[in-house]
Amino acid sequence: MTRRAPRLSSRRVPGASASSPCTAPAVGGRGGALPSESPSRRRVGLPFTPPGSGAEEAARRARGPMGWRRAGRSHAPWSASGAGRGRRSGKAIMKKPRTAVRSRHRKQASRQEGREKRVLSSSQVKPPTPNGLARRQEEVVLQASVSPYHLFRGTAEVRAFRENLLRWYDREKRDLPWRRRAEGEVDLDRRAYAVWVSEVMLQQTQVATVIDYYTRWMQKWPTLQDLASASLEGVNQLWAGLGYYSRGRRLHEGARKVVEELGGHVPRTAETLQQLLPGVGRYTAGAIASIAFGQATGVVDGNVVRVLCRVRAIGADSSSALVSQHLWSLAQQLVDPTRPGDLNQAAMELGATVCTPQHPRCSQCPVRSLCRAHQRVEREQLLASRSLPGSPDVEECAPGSGQCRLCAPPSEPWDPTLGVTNFPRKASRKPPREECSATCVLEQPRAVGGPRILLVQRPNSGLLAGLWEFPSVTTEPSGQRQRQALLRELQRWAGPLPATRLRHLGQVVHTFSHIKLTYEVYGLALEGETPVTTAPPGARWLTREEFHTAAVSTAMKKVFRVYEGRRPGACKGSKRSPVSAPSSWKKPSPGQQLLDSFFRPHIPRDAPSLNSTAQ
């Protein structure tokens, strides 16, 4: 009789037959897996380590006394494709692919993982991310200490969540360009690139804004090779106005690394994506791996945080390490092994369109029957209407001792007027620090070929790295020293200048993610001087048309509108800057029109000031 490998102590799920393989781990009493998952995935969602290999001994040492596998993912060539599912008694049963396309994708993923292993052995790899053994050990400890109220009741509840959410997604999902491109792309690297670009652009940016940028980006650089051969200047130019400019720079760096160091192939797993590609964190890596390569790995973004906190009534600070770790654990438990990318996108879609921050549409939510926040609201409504005697039977958190670490603190009790928006708890944000900068639009009205304005390039690191701006200096809020410092900066780029013509025009307040920057806007026109045709390194004289297509930040566009509104000859009484549109412009898309309307300020004649928040 073949001796079985050690198994996790378990209990049978209620309703399961004696022959059913569905069991739930004894630790925490929750979180069983579906019958379609292999025993190894039922333990911790990891691929099988083949017997007789060196990795088997390491895996055996990593297992606890009850057979719980705590080690990180195996790097066996077939681990990314899921071919190790269906293992019994330490033997691997290789299932035949349903289609030739799936078989070809698995072979590509297998060959690519071999390349990744060779690259990972080089000295150029980033330090290992905090996953693997340490992360699994933390998840075990967390699950054991969490109240069952904040967990899913094993197989049946997880299956219901998956099926309801995917059925809704298939019916209601939005038609977005990156989804069409990924779904219709057979080549794995091109599919991963399409997903990668969209996920980077969507960070901290609304879908309506991203659509136009994504379309123009993919038209200009349809492949990784095209992006790798592009200049950083061109990348910054297309990214201008999208905000968080380091995203575009890192995307460009990542494309170059894939082409120059990885043979043109994108890493196939979340772990290697995060380790090998600059600017790719845990969320982006999981999104690419699940959507493009079908890896069963969960993702957690702002939308998923909101959905999971409401579904499992998690009222503690969602930005804390404890809550974040628990949310990632729930996301991994919920991800569908057969449709991981769709499940992840469905959860994000639900948070973006139904389970919204301020006005959730609970009546249209496909998982409201599983939502603890919704159950709490219904209970409150029943008690208020007195339609039923006594208290309705609704489960509540009952920790063994002390205050539950995932519930809201006693100082922040349930507010009946907020309903489900009691979750998640809004973390206290540190206000942005305030800074002041003096900037000047220096113009040659009579330059050859038309008026020209001076732009200088920012350093290659730090805020707005590599973008172009009007000459600026960081100064105190006001005073004569500000003018003197700005004049010195102007003369450094343009030589001697008529200081008496330097005019203060107004003020622009622009808020970045961590800085509230006030620009004191000045203007200086070189009317009688001999036109300058050259500029020192790091500076350029541009026409107005060139300015509108240059890699400049949103803040500089606002500064230029103030200058245009106050320069001599501007249309009196006009609420809009008299900037003529270049003849080469086409009618912008609806998304771009919305973006332009946001950046078009009303400038009072007596005290021009723009106060708005950056995207």
TrEMBL record:
One cellular-component annotation, GO: nucleus
Region: Disordered, residue numbers: 1-136, 567-615
Protein name: Adenine DNA glycosylase
A Pfam match: NUDIX_4
Compartment(s) where it occurs, according to its Swiss-Prot or TrEMBL record: Mitochondrion; Nucleus
Ranges of biased composition (kind: Basic and acidic residues): 110-119
Main location: mitochondrion
Gene: MUTYH
